Amino acid sequence: LSGGTLLGVGIWVKVDGESFLNIFGALSSSILQVVNVAYLLIVIGAILLVIGFLGCYGAQKESKCLLMMFFSLVLIIFIAEVAAAVVALVFTGLAKTLLAGLVTPLLKEQYGKDRTFTEIWNITMTEVHCCGLNNYTDFNNSYFYETNLTYPKQCCNMQEPCNSTLAEETAVQVWIWGIATSCYPHPCGCLLQGCFEEILEEIRTNAGVAGGVAAGIAALEIAAMAVSMYLYCRLDEK
């Protein structure tokens, strides 16, 4: 059921991505800027459907082969998830470097040219109050800058025209208990943060929720492996 749901959502995002953005807002746009979430959901949904079929059909037909395949696939996914979580926690800097290598060239080539890609980034930068992946310099020598001779207005707190001087000197709004205050320029510069740092901060803020969801998924996977192995062993007794 969950595989079918993810598959359906993936197809929906692929066919009508704009309505997906409108419903789920900044969080979805933050994800969409890094990966093609439609294809990701379709692949994950299809994999879950296959795994679910192996488990259900193997239990119904009392097939040791299918039950062992089900157990092995869930175990591989569980190990991969644990490894990904460890890498994400320990190697945040490496993750940023890898994303910069993937996303920054896309920003330079596609922002201002591809309408959907541009809309996704505009929503992200506006809602999250950030500029580029690292900062406004991600747009140097980009298609958008060479075409318009300006940076996105989000890099200058929505002021236009947004040039490098204004992007460097513009005060950054800091939200404290819902009230916007100003952070005035200082000798080291007071730049609008990149979206990576802002999104990372959002993840840290909601770490409890994310951890709870991850723990729930892990518990389900462990339960699925335990049940499949129990059935496998019972078939040996028969």
UniProtKB/TrEMBL annotation:
<keyword id="KW-0458">Lysosome</keyword>
<keyword id="KW-0812">Transmembrane</keyword>
<feature type="transmembrane region" description="Helical">
    <location>
        <begin position="66"/>
        <end position="91"/>
    </location>
</feature>
<comment type="subunit">
    <text>Interacts with SLC19A2. Interacts with NTRK1/TRKA.</text>
</comment>
<protein>
    <recommendedName>
        <fullName>Tetraspanin</fullName>
    </recommendedName>
</protein>
<dbReference type="InterPro" id="IPR018499">
    <property type="entry name" value="Tetraspanin/Peripherin"/>
</dbReference>
<feature type="transmembrane region" description="Helical">
    <location>
        <begin position="209"/>
        <end position="233"/>
    </location>
</feature>
<dbReference type="GO" id="GO:0005886">
    <property type="term" value="C:plasma membrane"/>
</dbReference>
<comment type="function">
    <text>Structural component of specialized membrane microdomains known as tetraspanin-enriched microdomains (TERMs), which act as platforms for receptor clustering and signaling. Participates thereby in diverse biological functions such as cell signal transduction, adhesion, migration and protein trafficking. Regulates neuronal differentiation in response to NGF by facilitating NGF-mediated activation of NTRK1/TRKA receptor tyrosine kinase and subsequent downstream signaling pathways. Plays a role in the inhibition of TNFalpha-induced apoptosis.</text>
</comment>
<feature type="transmembrane region" description="Helical">
    <location>
        <begin position="37"/>
        <end position="59"/>
    </location>
</feature>
<dbReference type="InterPro" id="IPR000301">
    <property type="entry name" value="Tetraspanin_animals"/>
</dbReference>
<comment type="similarity">
    <text>Belongs to the tetraspanin (TM4SF) family.</text>
</comment>
<dbReference type="InterPro" id="IPR008952">
    <property type="entry name" value="Tetraspanin_EC2_sf"/>
</dbReference>
<dbReference type="GO" id="GO:0005765">
    <property type="term" value="C:lysosomal membrane"/>
</dbReference>
<keyword id="KW-0325">Glycoprotein</keyword>
<dbReference type="Pfam" id="PF00335">
    <property type="entry name" value="Tetraspanin"/>
</dbReference>
<dbReference type="InterPro" id="IPR018503">
    <property type="entry name" value="Tetraspanin_CS"/>
</dbReference>
<keyword id="KW-0472">Membrane</keyword>
<keyword id="KW-1133">Transmembrane helix</keyword>
